[in-house]
Amino acid sequence: MAGYTGIQGQISRNNRMSVLYLLAFPMLVLGGVYAFLYLTAGTEYEGADPAQVNEAFLSAAPVVVIVVMIWFLIAYAFQSRIIEATTGSHTLERKENMRVYNLVENLCISVGMTMPKIHVIEDQALNAFASGLSEKSYTVTLTRGIIDRLNDDELEGVIAHELMHIRNRDVRLLVITIIFVGIFSLVAQVLFRSMLYGGGRRNKKDNKGIIVALVIAAVAYFLALLFKFGLSRKREYMADAGAADMTKKPWALASALRKVSGNYEVKAVKGDDVKEMFFHNHPDSSSGFMSSLEGLFATHPPIEKRIRFLEQV
Predict the structure, then answer these.
(1) How do residues 19-63 score in pLDDT, each as one tens digit?
(2) Which tops the pLDDT comparison, 232 or 28?
(3) How do residues 239-275 score in pLDDT, each as one tens digit?
(4) Which residue range forms the structural domain that includes residue 255?
(5) Does residue 4 have a pLDDT over 60?
């Protein structure tokens, strides 16, 4: 992994990626709709008529786009409330912990950024995450465990890592990917349950349509996941490097990662989407084929690799 590419370069890259995601996911949805219409248009004896498929697609496409966009805008608008409800976090008052406020404030002053809100999760696990879509909603959330068990240099490194996610606009990009991947996930779940519990009440053609739709939704979901996970792992390296540059203490962040290892699971948080935002979220190390498989579907690189990377910064 190369060193940090610079804040403006990373912001520009993430802005481009946000636009690409906003275009790519609806295109993937529309591609799935077209594939469904094509594969279900034929009969037992004849293949699909491309002209009829195209006509049906042109009629369905505007409705599909409108539904997806409404879903996206609702989720986009309420994401902060959803995250707070899912994690059980609450505001950490300045008078309650001046140490944390001083660390965040000093880091923000050093790079000229607006100070985000600070929230805390009352859990003894060691973890943190950044969230928000604008300066008004940007938030750094820390667990009680990570506040209590890291020294000032280590906690500063973790906070700097989360601030880099905000500065790089990773948080906005991640929210976009979570929302669109969630669409594919829900569609696949609905179709699977429909096939599982309603098959006896449908005719053969309807059952075929459900199966075809389920396969298409599953493939689209799988492709979206792979792309999202790869992007998520890369942004963690970038945030680590940016935090090391911000604090000038890469060793402190490496030390924090060592303490976090094996004690990062926040029991109060059940949703996988929110866990993807955490400072660390990777299965314990394993070997062989299972290690490669876990790595492919992990949102974060292994802690050992992140520490080695920081030692080279």
Answers:
(1) 776 677 778 888 888 888 888 776 655 667 888 889 988 998 898
(2) 28
(3) 898 899 999 999 999 999 999 988 898 887 776 777 8
(4) 7-312
(5) no
Distance CA 132, CA 291 (A): 32
Looking at the domain assignment, is residue 1 inside a domain? no
Residues belonging to the chain: 313
Q: Calculate ∠ Cα 125-84-74, nearest 5°.
A: 140
From 213, 165, 126, 229, select the one nearest 10 (Cα to Cα). 165
Known catalytic residue at 162:
yes
Q: Which residues pair with 42 in a beta bridge?
A: none
pLDDT band at 284 (very low <50, low <70, confident <90, very high): low
0.85 exceeded by the pTM?
no
With CA atoms as reference, report the closest residue to 262 among 304, 202, 310. Answer: 304
For the record, the structure tokens of 57 come out as 């697609």
Instruction: Tell me if 129 sits within 8 A of 279, measured CB to CB.
Output: yes
Token code pair at residue 223: 């492709």
Structure tokens at 124: 């003894």
| Residue 91 placed within a domain | yes
Structural domain includes residue 2: no
As for how many domains the chain has, the answer is 1
Whether residue 218 is contained in a domain is answered as yes
Torsion of CA 112, 312, 173, 144, to 10 degrees: -70
Integer Cα distance of 195 and 203 in angstroms: 12
Alpha-carbon span 173 to 106, nearest angstrom: 26
- Out of 154, 156, 162, 236, pick the active-site residue: 162
The candidate with the shortest Cα–Cα distance to 310, out of 247, 245, 241, is 241
Could you tell me which of 91, 101, 115 has the C-alpha nearest to residue 152?
101
